[in-house]
């Protein structure tokens, strides 16, 4: 039986994030993996589906590696930033040092931890946490501050808040390292070299066509083309390199210090990417 026939009998179930920031990572992916199934959902739901074995591979929040050390990083394609990210924000009704409660976007996990780390590091506060359901607007939350991610962070009106943090910018200024929000990972024993290569190829294809993707998405989302183009071309970083790995290590250590995770993931989890020198990544 040929490889293609085996794939038809056992197609891999691949989950991708449904936000704008993922479009360059999945550009042409369905054509590169015609025998597999591609699903789209919110980051937190993808992580749950992967842990429940409803998916085999998914683009999940990077914090999930701390809870699932058995998962393997498949690709050096990622969603990250080296400065302002635009799509991850904390909006404050009171000055940051005075907040007592924080509403967390229900779709977020990495950003939820990142917000708590930065509030503690920069202002020494540990707010009470509540949830902002996916269907509610940030201004409908009762908390002193609201974390929003993804498309609704880009589109939201910030004028009703006294201060707004771009968490990518705040992290990079404080740590002097990049931030990685999401990674392609697989459950044990399901990864293949073909899929790993396809994920990298899709990212490379998407990065070559950022202007085209920006035009399509600005029309679909009814957002200014300049905003979408700057977001995809300048705010986001899609390559997992040595500096990104250093940023991840620090992020995990800070999360462990605040008891937000049990312990930082071991470097062995990152071995597939660590084997790639910078000159071969993107």
CATH architecture of the largest domain: 3-Layer(aba) Sandwich
Strands of the widest sheet, in order across it, are 2-1-3-10-4-11
Separation, N- and C-terminal Cα atoms = 35 Å
Strand content: 15-25%
- Principal-axes geometry comes out as globular
Measured on Cα atoms, how large is the radius of gyration? 18 Å
Could you explain how this protein is built, in words?
The protein is an alpha/beta fold and 282 residues long. The chain folds into 2 domains: 3-80 and 181-280, Periplasmic binding protein-like II (D-Maltodextrin-Binding Protein, domain 2); 88-175, Periplasmic binding protein-like II (D-Maltodextrin-Binding Protein, domain 2, 3-Layer(aba) Sandwich). It is built from 12 helices and 11 strands. It has a 6-stranded mixed β-sheet with strand order 2-1-3-10-4-11. Helix 5 links the parallel strand 6 (101-105) and strand 7 (128-132). Helix 9 (210-221) crosses helix 10. The chain is globular, with a radius of gyration of 18 Å. The protein starts with a helix and ends in an 8-residue tail after the last helix.
Condensed summary:
This protein has twelve helices and eleven strands. The protein has helices spanning 3-9, 29-32, 43-51, 64-67, 110-123, 151-155, 167-175, 193-208, 210-221, 225-235, 242-257, 271-274, and strands at residues 13-17, 37-41, 57-61, 72-81, 88-92, 101-105, 128-132, 145-149, 163-166, 179-186, 237-239. Mean pLDDT is 89; it is low at 1-8 and 276-282.
């Amino acid at each position: 039986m040929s490889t293609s026939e085996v794939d038809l009998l056992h197609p891999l179930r691949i989950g991708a994030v449904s936000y704008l920031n993922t479009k360059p990572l999945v550009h042409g992916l369905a054509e590169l993996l015609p025998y597999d199934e591609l699903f789209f959902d919110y980051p937190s739901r993808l992580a749950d589906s992967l842990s429940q074995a409803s998916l085999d591979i998914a683009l999940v929040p990077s914090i999930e590696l701390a809870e699932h050390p058995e998962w393997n990083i498949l690709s050096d394609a990622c969603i990250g930033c080296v400065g302002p990210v635009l799509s991850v924000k904390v909006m404050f009704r009171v000055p940051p040092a005075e907040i007592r409660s924080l509403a967390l976007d229900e779709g977020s996990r990495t950003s939820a931890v990142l917000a708590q780390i930065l509030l503690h590091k920069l202002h020494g506060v540990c707010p009470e946490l509540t949830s902002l359901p996916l269907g509610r607007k940030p201004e409908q939350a009762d908390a002193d501050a609201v974390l929003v991610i993804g498309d609704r962070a880009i589109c939201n009106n910030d004028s009703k808040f006294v201060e707004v943090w771009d968490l990518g910018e705040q992290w990079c200024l404080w740590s002097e390292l990049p931030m990685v929000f999401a990674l392609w990972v697989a459950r044990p024993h399901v990864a293949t070299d073909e899929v790993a290569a396809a994920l990298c190829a899709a990212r490379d294809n998407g990065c070559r066509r950022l202007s085209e993707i920006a035009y399509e998405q600005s029309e679909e989302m009814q957002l200014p083309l300049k905003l979408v183009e700057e977001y995809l071309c300048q705010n986001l970083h899609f390559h997992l390199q040595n500096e990104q790995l250093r940023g991840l290590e620090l992020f995990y250590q800070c999360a462990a210090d605040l008891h937000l995770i049990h312990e930082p993931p071991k470097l062995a989890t990152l071995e597939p990417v660590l084997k790639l020198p910078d000159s071969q990544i993107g």
